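User: tokens in, sequence out, please.
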């Protein structure tokens, strides 16, 4: 043992043991290693009968190799006059990876390590007593043994973390593949038994996702470049690899689901498309994308994750922009010769009249002006549009384009 080996300081009892006696102790302990390793493995299997047996290329149990190398490493540390303990890295990292890949926690592995240390220490204590090594020195040796155990656990934790990271990466990769298939416009027939349906079933099974009857697809806007993924809960598919993250919400109307998403999305903004049958997931995505574009243009509320079903009017009227603008040019042509301010007042009055179908008092109350002012404007509207304002189809088109103008902020909001 050396000065650099942790708890055994320069004045430690172990360093006072004559070097010859230390070498003899180490030699006896090394001779015991093969049989001791077998005994330890046998006891571990009795205590943990469900422990899987993994063999190396030569057919020898990996656990036995690890125990033997750990014992040899510790005994060599005892006899060494310099350097730090050397851990059998690859074996114990592999143990940690094995626990991660089989879905077990590290608690059971650490319990096995502690059992092995107790059994090994029992035999080392017997050798120390046989060689008449002073008890204080053996106590310090025991402390060093548990420090050595901590080093082995560290290696297993590294392996476990590596396996967990790989598993999570693979899970996310498979989840993205599933989402790509779900959201594909050219997925074809999704019916069970079809080629497309079989592929979907297979990909869903690989990530443990139960195919729902209905879904809603969301598109998110990151609050910051390095924003942590929202905790959307089990069952919600989330792809954070795209510039605008996407998610697939199964059974979006299920009890508790909307509230769960609302809490998870705090601090995020974006849109969730309408609930649709699973086969139509791409349609829900399209509407969510439309809503996000309107949010970015300031035409829909930002700073939250909105639901398309709560903004149907805006999505229907603002999405086909070119068609609505063409219709507006034709329907609102009579206003072309009015000044901007007067034309806007007439348009607001016309829309209020179309929405209320009331007389001057009702329209005036909606606009917050005097009824006589409304009567004057309505006469002008009659002069500009003539009998068209009495035609149901023309009235519908006028209300359509005027509502679209109001949604864009070009007309005042009333009522």
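Assistant: Sequence out:
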């Amino acid at each position: 043992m050396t000065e650099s080996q942790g708890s055994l300081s320069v004045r430690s009892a172990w360093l006072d043991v004559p070097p010859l006696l230390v070498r003899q102790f180490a030699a006896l302990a090394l001779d015991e290693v093969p049989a001791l390793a077998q005994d330890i493995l046998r006891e571990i299997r009795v205590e943990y009968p469900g422990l899987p047996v993994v063999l190396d290329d030569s057919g020898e149990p990996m656990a036995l190799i690890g125990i033997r190398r750990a014992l040899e490493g510790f005994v060599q540390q005892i006899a060494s006059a310099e350097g730090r303990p050397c851990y059998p890295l690859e074996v114990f990292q592999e143990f940690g990876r094995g626990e991660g890949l089989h879905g077990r926690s590290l608690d059971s592995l650490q319990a096995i390590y502690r059992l092995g240390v107790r059994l090994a220490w029992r035999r080392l204590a017997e050798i120390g007593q046989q060689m008449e090594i002073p008890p204080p020195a053996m106590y310090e040796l025991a402390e060093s043994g548990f420090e050595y155990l901590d080093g082995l656990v560290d290696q297993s934790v590294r392996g476990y973390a590596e396996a967990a990271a790989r598993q999570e990466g693979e899970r996310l990769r498979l989840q993205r593949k599933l989402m790509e298939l779900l959201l594909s416009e050219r997925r074809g027939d999704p019916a069970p038994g079809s080629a497309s349906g079989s592929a979907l079933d297979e990909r869903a099974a690989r990530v443990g996702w139960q195919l729902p009857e209905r879904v809603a697809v969301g598109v998110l806007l990151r609050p910051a470049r390095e924003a942590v993924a929202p905790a959307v809960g089990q069952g919600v598919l989330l792809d954070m690899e795209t510039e605008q993250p996407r998610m697939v919400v199964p059974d979006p109307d299920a009890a508790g689901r909307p509230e769960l998403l609302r809490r998870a999305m705090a601090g995020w903004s974006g849109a969730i498309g309408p609930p649709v049958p699973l086969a139509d997931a791409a349609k829900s995505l399209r509407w969510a994308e439309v809503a996000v574009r309107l949010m970015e243009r300031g035409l829909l509320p930002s700073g939250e994750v909105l639901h398309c079903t709560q903004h149907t009017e805006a999505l229907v009227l603002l999405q086909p922009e070119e068609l609505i603008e063409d219709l507006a040019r034709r329907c609102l042509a009579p206003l072309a010769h009015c000044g901007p301010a007067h034309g806007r007042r007439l348009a607001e009055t016309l829309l209020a009249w179309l929405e209320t179908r009331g007389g001057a008092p009702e329209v005036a109350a909606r606009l917050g002006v005097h009824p006589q002012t409304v009567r004057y404007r309505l006469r002008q509207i009659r002069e500009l549009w003539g009998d068209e304002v009495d035609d149901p189809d023309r009235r519908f088109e006028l209300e359509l384009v005027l509502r679209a103008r109001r949604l864009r902020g070009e007309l005042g909001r009333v009522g």
